[in-house]
Amino acid sequence: MLRLGVGERGVSEIMAVAEHIASLCVAADALRLPVDIPEPAEPSGADAVRPVEAAELQGEAREAMEEIAAWTPENLGIAHVPLIWRSLAHLPRMFANTWRKDRLVMSAGRLDEQTKACISFAVAAARQSPYMIAYTTALLRKALSLEDGALVELVASIMHYISFNTISHAMLIEPKQMEMRAAQFVEG
Fold first, then answer.
1. What are the pLDDT digits (tens) for 66-125?
2. CB neighbour list of residue 162: distance below 8 Å, 6 or more residues apart
3. Which is nearest to 89 in space by CA: 118, 132, 60, 123?
4. Is residue 183 classed as helix, strand or coil in its secondary structure?
């Protein structure tokens, strides 16, 4: 990544996006959330976690839920708050902080929002999380206007790098960067 010219800050942003989306994949899959994008859905079964509504929340958690409700139509193209957020709201402080983290990690920095959304989709796809694949696909299509061809191109890139990584791991190939330090790379 450093060779691509994103520098240490860009690599840190990539790692932050990957970690954040991976943790949302784990949450969505552990809670067995049905895909609710584009159409609303409710968890079913005796072990289902009941989604929390904004009216049940107070303070920073309610503010976060209202912010998500305002953000969602423009960025995901849906009129409801996604289940991932409504489920996490059972722990109000964690929920509000996770939303703040989402906005911090996913907003433009050294990397733009489209790049971060593509990374998010790649992480969701690699983790095989149906919920987060639907969520990140909606983000790519609505907020970033990615069309079918571009989405397939992104999937092709993911396929290529997963294959490349599999082969590299199987052949026990160590990257030269393992011996290098960040100071040896020049930004840009």
1. 999 999 999 999 999 999 999 999 999 999 999 999 999 999 999 999 999 999 999 999
2. 126
3. 60
4. helix
Residues 101, 85, 139, 122, CA torsion sign: positive
Q: How far is CA 62 from the centre of its chain?
A: 22
Return the structure tokens found at 93: 């402080």
Rg (C-alpha) for the chain, rounded Å, is: 18
Angstrom distance (rounded) from CA 141 to CA 144: 6
d(CA 152, CA 129): 18
Scan for tokens 């860009």, then name that residue. Answer: 10
Show Cβ contacts of residue 7 under 8 Å, excluding neighbours closer than 6 positions.
110, 185, 187, 188
- Please tell me the pTM assigned to this model: 0.84
Domains in the chain with CATH codes: 2-184 (1.20.1290.10)
Look up residue 45 and give its DSSP letter. Answer: S
Integer Cα distance of 21 and 50 in angstroms? 22
The three-class DSSP label of residue 82 is coil
| C-alpha distance from residue 1 to each of 30, 56, 89, 163 (Å) | 31, 44, 35, 18
Q: Enter the DSSP assignment of 187.
A: -
Q: How far apart are CA 134 and CA 140, in angstroms?
A: 10
